[in-house]
Amino acid sequence: MSGMLETRLQVGPARFRVASAWSQPFEQLQFLYRDYPQPDGDFVDFTVRLEPEKIWRKYFRPAVHIGGDFWLPDAAPLSLDQGLLAAEMGMNLQMALGWRRHLLLHASTVERDGKALLMTGLSGSGKSTLSAMLGEKGWRFMGDEFALLSPETGQIHSFPRLISLKNQTIKAMQDVVPSGRFGPLLEGTPKGDIQHIVPAKEAIDAMDKPAKPALLLFPRFGYDKAIREMGKSEIFVRLTQASTNYVALGEAGFNTLTNFVDKVPARAIDYQSGEEAQELIDQLWNEFA
Amino acid sequence: MSQRYKAANAKDLILRELDEMSLIFHKTSGITHVVADPIPAILEVMEATSMTAAKVVDKLAKNFELEDALDIENFVLARLDEMCSLGLVELEAG
Predict the structure, then answer these.
(1) ipTM > 0.95 (yes/no)
(2) DSSP assignments along A153-186, one per residue
(3) Distance, CA of B14 to CA of A85 (rounded, Å)
(4) Residue of A nearest to B20 (CA)
(5) Whole-number pLDDT of residue A222
(6) Measured between CB atoms, which of A233, A247, A254 is closest to B19?
(7) Looking at beta carbons, which residues of chain B come within 8 Å of A247?
(8) Rg, C-alpha atoms of chain A
(9) What is the pLDDT of residues A65-113, one digit of tens each?
(10) CB of A285 within 8 Å of any CB in chain B?
C-alpha cells in the first residue's frame, strides 16, 4: 500500500488497519479514534482501504472507493467529504462479512452492573440513538451497530466504534455530548446527514470487559407508548435476520442463538420520545435485570 | 400410499422446542427449519427406518391422541411431502 497513509486501531476484540489515499479522512479518523488502543504487534484482523477507483480520481472530483479483505462489488464510491463515512462503512463491512469468533447481532448494547441491555430493530427504530443517550446517563456504551455474542460463554462483547447519528438525532445529542467528541457533519450522504460522536472515555477504556445479556428490546419509534410480549420463535427468527454471520457459524451459531433466546427476556417497545423510551427501559430493566 | 419414506439420521438433527413452534437444525445442510406440530412428532416416530404414511399414522396413534374427524393418513402424507422438500425426509426409490 505504498503512497497511502496508514493507521491501526482496535475496537473491542477486532483489530483494523485502515489505509487512505487522502489525508482528510485519515486525519479525521486519527482525531476521532485518539483514545482507542493500538493493537499489540503487527497482526490485524482486517484491512480497509480508501482509494480512488481510477488513479486520476484521486485529484479530479475525488471519489472514495472502499476496498479491503471483504468488499461488495456494487458499492457506490463516496465523495471525498464523506471519506470518514467510507472508513466506518468499510470497518462495519469487514465485521459483517468476515468476523467468526462471535455471533454478530445487529443491535446496540449498553451495560450496567455487569449486565447488558440489547436493542435491535430496523433502521429508524432508534436503537442507535437510545444507546448513545443511555451512554451519557450512567450506562456503559458497548456499541450501536454489532453486539458480539460469545458461543463459549454466552456473554456479550463490546464493539464500541464511533456512534453514527443521523438527521434529527444529531441536534438532540448536541445538547448532551461535549462538542470535542463530535466528528464533522457529513451532509447529503446516502443515509441523509450523518455526524459521528466518540463514545465516552469510560466506554473505550472498558471495551475488553464482556457483560451478561439481561434484557433484549425491539424498540419502534413513532408509535403510542406500549410494551408487547413476543413469542420465542418470533424472537429467534428476527434475530437470525439481524445476524450477519448466523448461517456461516453453522451448528455453533444455532446453539448460541437458541441458548440466548431461551435465557434472555425480551419485549417489543413502542415510543414517541426519548423520555418515553427511558421510562419503558427503566421499568423493564427493574423487572427483569 | 405405498410409498416409503425415510427420515434424516437423528444424529444429524438438533431439535429445540421454543413455543408453539420448534426449531430443527440440519447439520448436513446447515439449514435451520422453523416447524410446527406434528413435524417433530413424525420425525420422532420414524426414527431410522423407512415406512409408509400408514405406518407413520399407526406409530403416531400409539404415542398421541389423534383427531378422528381428520383424514389423518392424507394429512400425514402431505406433511411427509413437505418434509421431503425440506430435506428432512427422503422418498425411498422403488
Answers:
(1) no
(2) T-PEEP----EEEETHHHHHHHTTS-GGGEEEEE
(3) 42
(4) A233
(5) 93
(6) A233
(7) 30
(8) 19
(9) 888 887 777 777 888 888 999 999 999 999 999 999 999 999 999 999 9
(10) no
